[in-house]
């Protein structure tokens, strides 16, 4: 399966039940304040949706958790690692082992077939090509796109591309799966499929942090919704998932 | 201010790195083009250029002062066909001693009150011109290491005159100059006239000019003449040594510059597709978009072309002066105006055309297509290879890097070609340096003779054999060979023959064919001697000296450069001049021996001997080395800059991919490894292809040099590319590429992922 229950053996997950802990996080770009004292905790196995209008700081928040950007002040702790104290290389290793990312525009490498796009994440860790491809094929099979493994991104549909991207994100059995508008570039049918996929993942224990405008996605996949406005958390609410 | 101008200026400001890269590449390319064209130009006319600059005499004529009157000589300057003339100047053959320990020399001295006459403007490169009696200016080729002090010379009649300057005449009109007043004291019997003719391209035209100026003069009035065509032929022999490699480097430089400019500009256009799309969406017409783009590219191009052309002129002057310093003197060269104009106009036109061609595609694209050009999935290239690479055991960062050039095959080909030429340049440079060094070492017998010992003024205190024994017994001596030089008549030959007689071994000459003379009547000669005399091994000719005539047989062909002495052994000398003592001893020192200690020991052993180390690097060789070094470095730098530019473009185009790779855990070191590998792979490919090309050009250059200098270069001096050198050369391609790729790769590694992913 996707390995959502096993990240501790791979990435040294601590006993801390909180996978993510943001404490008074502030991020400024010049005169613009993107995040203004955000506090947030995400427990293992949770699916949290971050919502809010454009420019409210959703993506910035996701970047902080992924270690793609550093906070101006405050602390971002993911699986016990204070990301603010890691150098560039350590943060890359952190992402490699503990984070899986899914983007709105998929971000697949155009020169590689679907199978190699997925295998890439493991190969960067040093997994031999044969072994990496075997696992990539297994993941593509789980996500229903094994028959598209030899196709290149340009020839895949949006939904297929996003499935391949999800497979890549899961390749190294991450403790936390981050999704930035995962249905934003998809038609409604493909969007539905991706929602189902994320829901399935969460139900087998994969912790999710989803940034989205899509209320349906939040309702369907998230157990909790965090609403941002002007860089602040203005509301948090638990959700009963819709079927 | 028009919208086009505003948009172009904004684009330049926004693309600082790209603008800088264009500026640097265009600037360096302009420099290289100026140097290259100047070298190619110099190839065809260094002598003519120097001759024109000095208003050199087409004919130097010596008249008998008793038969040709001053009025007749003055009148000769106005004859038909004479465009300018100088003289008459008194001319005398004077015996003089320049230094106390030097032998007396016979020199042609001319009385001239000024160096800058209408014909033959003498170049005073050290000191000043004569101001009156008691002063003399010596003719000498300019040197980078001029004499530190000016001395006096003693004339044959015992008077001393002060040397006030050194000067050089490309016309070779005199060996020294004094004032006309001083000349009167020397009682000249000969008058010198210097002529320039309106037509002087051929020997017939020179003869016609000579006939015109001597018409009406009594028989025997004209004592001798010197045509500039003769000097030109001799000069071409010397310049010919430089021509081949200057041509090679000049052409390499031009091609590399063109490749890189094309790469930069087409890459800049491709990288700017999105920008073009946005402009179109804003309402700019296709032509306005192209105007924006051309302006954006041409702004840094024009500025850099001007700066590069200026710097190129300076560099070309330095290289040319260095290359031809010995033959024509400092300041004898200027870069031809057509070279400057070509670079100033040609480079921007070339850049503009490349940009125009590249942007035609953008012009055709719709706004939507152009905007989405950077973000929509594209069909990759070299997919099978990339897929195969993904399955290899190579680290993934390396296999991704190796596959990267396949994504942009045209750009990669241009980059590889630039590296190829860079490596070919390095190959030629190493080969030429090695061949020239090997030849010069063999010619000067650097390995065989480290100290030369000659009698000092007053003569040796010991006898010939005793001196030789003493020199052999001194610490550090490995071999001592005695030498005697005689100028002998060569019966039936074109002139006298300088004969060197050796006592002992072969004196370290490299035998090309045959053997060293071991018996009386046997000689060895140079290849040039054989060519000019029409003789072959086994052929005979007759030498005549004070001791009579002796037929000699050529038994060996030896490697010798400039001079054409005849080499013989001591038994032959005993036949020709019995009882002669050696006038020099050539000493080979043991490995590690100190030549200055040996020199001191020689003086202590016999105060009547003077020893000096022979290892003095020639200025021509130094010029060759410095020229090769400058051109190689320039070629390597430009090739590396081409790689730098390619990586900058690749990083720019692949920001999203790089962000993605980093987001899934690629470390900064892996990013650098990937980008450097991508270029090192191209570099290796370029290196592998560049080496054979370089070897071919090295062979061509050395053969051309050998042909020009009328020498034979043995194969072992050409086959210098041993396996380790070949490996180094292959690596040179990778090093050039890696050096060019490193900085932009590091900046790619530092790319902020969030920013990179936001570009979508």
Automatic annotation (TrEMBL), chain B:
It is found in: Cell membrane. Residues 412-603 form the MacB-like periplasmic core domain. It comes from Sphaerisporangium corydalis. This is FtsX-like permease family protein. Belongs to the ABC-4 integral membrane protein family. Residues 247-366, 631-751 form the ABC3 transporter permease C-terminal domain. The keyword Cell membrane applies. The keyword Membrane applies. The chain crosses the membrane at residues 21-44, 241-270, 291-315, 335-357, 418-440, 622-651, 672-701, 721-743.
């Amino acid at each position: 399966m996707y390995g959502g229950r096993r990240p501790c053996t791979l990435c040294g997950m601590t006993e801390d039940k909180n996978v993510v802990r943001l404490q008074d996080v502030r991020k400024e770009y010049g005169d613009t304040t993107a995040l203004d004292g955000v506090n947030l905790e995400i427990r293992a196995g949770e699916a949290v949706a971050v919502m809010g209008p454009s420019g409210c700081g959703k993506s910035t928040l996701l970047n902080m958790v992924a270690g793609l950007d550093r906070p101006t002040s405050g602390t971002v702790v993911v699986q016990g690692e204070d990301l603010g104290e890691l150098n560039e290389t350590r943060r890359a290793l952190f992402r490699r082992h503990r984070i899986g990312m899914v983007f709105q525009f998929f971000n697949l490498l155009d020169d590689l077939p679907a199978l190699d796009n997925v295998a890439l994440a493991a190969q960067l860790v040093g997994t031999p090509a044969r072994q990496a491809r075997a696992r990539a094929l297994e993941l593509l099979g789980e996500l229903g796109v094994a028959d598209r493994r030899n196709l290149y991104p340009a020839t895949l549909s949006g939904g297929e591309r996003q499935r391949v991207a999800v497979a890549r994100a899961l390749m190294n059995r991450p403790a936390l799966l981050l999704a930035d508008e995962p249905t934003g570039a998809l038609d409604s049918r493909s969007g539905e499929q991706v929602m189902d996929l994320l829901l399935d993942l969460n139900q087998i224990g994969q912790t999710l942090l989803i940034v989205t405008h899509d209320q349906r996605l939040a309702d369907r996949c998230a157990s909790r919704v965090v609403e941002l406005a002007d860089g602040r958390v203005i509301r948090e609410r638990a959700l009963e998932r819709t079927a | 201010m028009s919208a086009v101008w505003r948009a172009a200026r904004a684009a330049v400001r926004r693309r600082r790195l790209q603008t800088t890269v264009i500026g640097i590449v265009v600037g360096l390319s302009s420099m290289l083009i100026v140097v290259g064209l100047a070298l190619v130009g110099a190839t065809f006319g260094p002598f003519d250029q120097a001759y024109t600059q000095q208003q050199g005499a087409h004919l130097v004529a010596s008249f008998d002062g008793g038969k040709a009157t001053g009025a007749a000589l003055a009148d000769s300057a106005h004859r038909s066909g004479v465009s300018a003339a100088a003289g008459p100047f008194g001319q005398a053959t004077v015996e003089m001693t320049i230094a106390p320990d030097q032998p007396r020399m016979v020199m042609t001295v001319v009385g001239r009150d000024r160096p800058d006459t209408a014909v033959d403007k003498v170049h005073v490169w050290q000191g000043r011109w004569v101001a009156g009696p008691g002063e003399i200016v010596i003719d000498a080729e300019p040197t980078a290491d001029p004499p530190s002090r000016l001395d006096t010379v003693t004339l044959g009649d015992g008077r001393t005159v002060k040397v006030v300057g050194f000067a050089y005449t490309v016309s070779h009109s005199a060996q020294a100059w004094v004032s006309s007043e001083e000349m009167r004291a020397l009682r000249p019997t000969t008058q010198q006239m210097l002529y320039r003719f309106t037509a002087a391209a051929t020997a017939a035209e020179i003869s016609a000019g000579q006939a015109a100026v001597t018409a009406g003069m009594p028989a025997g009035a004209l004592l001798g003449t010197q045509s500039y065509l003769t000097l030109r032929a001799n000069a071409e022999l010397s310049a010919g040594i430089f021509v081949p490699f200057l041509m090679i480097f000049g052409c390499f430089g031009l091609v590399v510059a063109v490749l890189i400019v094309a790469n930069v500009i087409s890459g800049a256009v491709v990288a700017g597709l999105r920008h073009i799309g946005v402009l179109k969406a804003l309402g700019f017409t296709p032509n306005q978009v192209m105007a924006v783009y051309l302006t954006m590219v041409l702004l840094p191009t024009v500025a850099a072309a001007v700066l590069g052309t200026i710097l190129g002129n300076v560099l070309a002057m330095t290289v040319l002066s260095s290359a031809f310093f010995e033959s024509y003197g400092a300041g004898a060269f200027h870069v031809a105006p057509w070279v400057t104009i070509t670079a100033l106009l040609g480079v921007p036109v070339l850049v503009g055309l490349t940009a125009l061609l590249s942007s035609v595609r953008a012009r055709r694209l719709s706004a939507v297509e152009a905007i989405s050009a950077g973000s929509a999935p594209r069909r990759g290239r070299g997919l099978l290879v990339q897929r195969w690479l993904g399955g290899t055991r190579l680290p993934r960062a390396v296999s991704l890097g190796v596959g990267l050039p396949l994504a942009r095959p045209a750009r990669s080909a241009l980059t590889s070609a630039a590296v190829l030429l860079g490596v070919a340049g390095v190959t030629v440079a190493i080969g030429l340096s090695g061949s020239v060094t090997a030849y010069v070492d063999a010619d000067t017998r650097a390995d065989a003779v480290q100290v030369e010992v000659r009698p000092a003024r007053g003569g040796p205190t010991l006898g010939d054999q005793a001196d030789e024994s003493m020199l052999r017994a001194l610490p550090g001596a490995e071999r001592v060979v005695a030498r005697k030089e005689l100028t002998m008549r060569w019966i039936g030959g074109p002139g006298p023959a300088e004969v060197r007689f050796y006592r002992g071994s072969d004196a370290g000459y490299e035998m090309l064919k045959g053997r060293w003379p071991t018996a009386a009547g046997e000689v060895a000669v140079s290849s040039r001697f054989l060519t000019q005399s029409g003789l072959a091994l086994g052929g005979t000719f007759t030498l005549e000296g004070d001791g009579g005539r002796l037929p000699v047989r050529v038994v060996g062909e030896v490697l010798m450069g400039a001079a054409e002495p005849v080499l013989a052994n001591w038994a032959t000398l005993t036949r020709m001049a019995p009882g002669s003592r050696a006038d020099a001893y050539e000493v080979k020192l043991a490995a590690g021996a100190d030549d200055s200690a040996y020199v001191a020991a020689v003086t202590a052993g016999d105060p009547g001997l003077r020893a000096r180390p022979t290892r003095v690097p020639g200025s021509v060789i130094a010029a060759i080395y410095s020229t090769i070094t400058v051109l190689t470095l320039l070629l390597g730098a430009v090739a590396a800059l081409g790689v730098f530019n390619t990586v900058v473009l690749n990083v720019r185009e692949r920001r999203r991919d790089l962000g993605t790779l980093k987001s899934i855990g690629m470390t900064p070191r892996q990013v650098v490894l990937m980008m450097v590998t991508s270029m090192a792979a191209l570099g290796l490919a370029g290196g592998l292809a560049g080496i054979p090309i370089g070897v071919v050009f090295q062979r061509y250059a050395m053969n051309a040099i050998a042909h020009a200098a009328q020498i034979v270069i043995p194969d072992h001096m050409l086959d210098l590319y041993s396996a380790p050198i070949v490996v180094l050369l292959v690596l040179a391609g990778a090093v050039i590429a890696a050096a060019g790729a490193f900085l932009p790769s590091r900046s790619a590694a530092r790319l902020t992922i969030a920013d990179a992913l936001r570009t979508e």
